[in-house]
Amino acid sequence: MTTSPTVNASSTLALVHHLLSRGHATESMIQSKLGFPSRELEDPDCRVPVADHNALWRLAITLTEDPALGLRLGEVVDPDRMGLMSHIVFNSDTVGHALDEYLRLHRLVNEAVHLYKVREGDRIRVIWHVPDESLYCVPDMDRTLSAAVTRARHFIHPRLAIEQLSLGHEDPGYRAHYERIFQCPLTFGAGETSLCFPADYLEAPLPHRNPYVHSALTTHVNRLLKQLRPRKTVAERVRRIVSRQLPRTPDVDRVASALNMSRQTLYRKLKKEGESFQNLAENVRRERALRYVVEGEYGLSEVAFLLGFSELSAFSRAFKRWTGETPGQYRTRHR
User: Fold this and answer.
1) What is the pLDDT confidence band of residue 222, given thresholds at 50, 70 and 90?
2) Residue 74 lies in a domain
3) Global pTM?
4) How far apart are CA 273 and CA 285, in angstroms?
5) Per-residue pLDDT averaged across 136-162, rounded?
6) Concatenated DSSP letters of 193-242
7) HTH araC/xylS-type domain: which residues (predicted)?
8) Domain interval for residue 28
9) Looking at the structure, do residues 153 and 168 belong to the same domain, yes or no?
């Protein structure tokens, strides 16, 4: 059985349907990329290797001559073609509950993308992190973001505001489409992809929620989650240990010892998962730094100490690398 990351077939099926229905591709062209007939994508338990899914996206951009295709497809709201996750999310009790379900279930959609949320004062940042850069696919990320925001505005509120969108990729040449859809400040080449929205949205009830539908679908989806191979378990354990060991400076030997393995074994296991110790430690410190700086409970020197930095200047350099601003500037802007 393959151990490569996979996507749920519903994502691939939406793209295949577009290509076939618009006459951009033939069944044989699709099958040559997938390695099996496209009708098999209709099986709700079918999964497609991420590499094949991304290859199909590259073919689609070539055939349609539309580099913004991902954004356009994400704007299509068709409940009959939405996957199980979307139905669970939009039948949740509140926006906060819906977001938690989105984060919990996203590995069903795409195992190559990890989702996190960070509270930054009066706003929430959702981060799409792709550990293996070779599996980062611009049109697929475009569709993911466009679908998330478009569906949220359709099912929750039409004027739902996005305060900031940061893209891990450089400007692909169709900025106007991003501006039209997201209606917020944009940053390209940000290193990772994230969007921010007001934290007070979290308590808002979902207007079309159906507890029975949510419960029935959740039972089925939980079964699917158990069938998936464990994802990034060593990376998750490293994150927890680094977080627990702060304010001590993150140290790979100390973490490896806590996991009862050698440094070399830890490096090897993380590499197999598409991660690195340095990246994980940086993410833990960055997430906590953003929260501490915005909340304002601690002085900046105290924040530096709590994150394991030897001095304020070292923390300030790291913080500017993460955000483009000094801690003081960031705190002022978020008050």
Assistant:
1) confident
2) no
3) 0.74
4) 20
5) 95
6) EEEEEEGGGGGPBPTT--HHHHHHHHHHHHHHHHHSPP-SHHHHHHHHHH
7) 236-333
8) 6-67
9) yes
